[in-house]
Amino acid sequence: MFKTHQPKAKEVRRNWHIIDAEDKVLGRLSTEVAGLLIGKHKREYVPHLDSGDYVVIVNSEKVKLTGKKEEKKFYFRHSGYPGGAKTIPVSRVRREKPTEIIKLSVLGMLPKNRLRDDRIERLKLFVGSEHPYKEKFLGGSFKI
Questions:
Q1: What pLDDT score was predicted for residue 2?
Q2: What is the b/e burial string over 89-124, where b = at least 16 CB atoms within 10 angstroms of the residue's CB?
């Protein structure tokens, strides 16, 4: 009889991927990044183990939103107190924290479980094309 191999946490090998977000649509970029962070592209993927890779996104301020989302989309949060609702338009978030648009989009696409925080920590977002992880890509895999 053959036995199914169950990977262990110490056997996980993490690769580095670099993605240029210039002129990419936010939703399509986010689904690709979420899959890389979860590790679904790997042969040894299992849902209960965090086997995802590191993802570096450059030019995150140049991501595109389709339609009229730039004017009509809002981010909503509530403090829990009466009158504590806040809505922030995407145009203001893009102006003040341009990397936050991609982070919130990817965060919403990750499964809501205890592995979520570890996965989102492996997402590195940068404004512009410069980043401090260039030495990671000398021998590893990368994606543009």
A1: 87
A2: ebeebbeeebbbbbbbbbbebbeeeebeeebeebbb
The CATH number assigned to the domain with range 13-65+97-137 reads: 3.90.1180.10
Please state the rounded mean pLDDT for residues 3-20: 90
- Please state, in angstroms and rounded to a whole number, the distance separating the CA atoms of residues 126 and 22: 12
Q: Measured on CA atoms in the order 130, 99, 57, 47, is the torsion positive or negative?
A: positive
φ, ψ at 25 (rounded to 5°):
-75, 135
| pLDDT 10s digits, 84-125 | 999 999 999 999 999 999 999 999 999 999 999 999 999 999
Domain residue ranges in the chain: 13-65+97-137
